[in-house]
Write a structure and sequence with these properties.
Blueprint: H1 3-16, E1 25-33, E2 39-40, H2 44-52, E3 61-70, E4 73-83, E5 88-89, E6 95-96, E7 102-114, E8 117-125, H3 127-134
Parallel strand pairs: 1-8
Antiparallel strand pairs: 1-2, 3-4, 4-7, 5-6, 7-8
């Protein structure tokens, strides 16, 4: 798969709740979400579940705003509309109870590809914008 196809497949699995990417990654794959500790591939399902718990429609209403790719990877700016339906734990450990609010979150994903597989995924969600909408 090329970088864009890998990105789309990852998000398809996130949306369906099947966040096992082991068949799409090199053994030393790393997910690094800004503000959170890095996670190896076997920890990805737990990370996706941690986002789905407070935002039950996580990833379902998502659109790509722009993308840039080369042979080594892709950068994708996207926006998601989600509903805050459960407790959200911030990177600082604060718990924000469900508000029922619709929130819009922008993020940039930078995926590195090696031999047709994901080597690294760095995500830069706008957590400040998200927190402002939840407060």
């Amino acid at each position: 798969m090329n970088a864009l196809e890998l990105h789309q497949e990852v998000w398809r699995r996130n949306t369906e709740g099947a966040a096992d990417y082991s068949d799409l990654t090199v053994p030393e794959f790393n997910l690094d979400i800004a503000g959170f500790p890095p996670v190896p591939v076997d920890g990805v399902p737990e990370v996706v579940a941690a986002w789905r718990a407070p935002f039950s429609d996580f990833g379902r209403d998502r659109r790509i705003l722009r993308s840039l790719a080369d042979a080594n990877g892709i950068a994708v700016e996207h926006q998601m509309l989600m509903t805050h339906t459960g407790d959200f734990t911030t990177p600082a450990g604060e718990v924000i109870p469900a508000t029922g609010r619709k929130v819009t979150v922008r993020s940039v994903d930078v995926l590195s590809v090696r031999d047709g597989k994901l080597a690294q995924w760095r995500a830069y969600p706008d957590l400040v914008g998200l927190l402002q909408q939840l407060q």
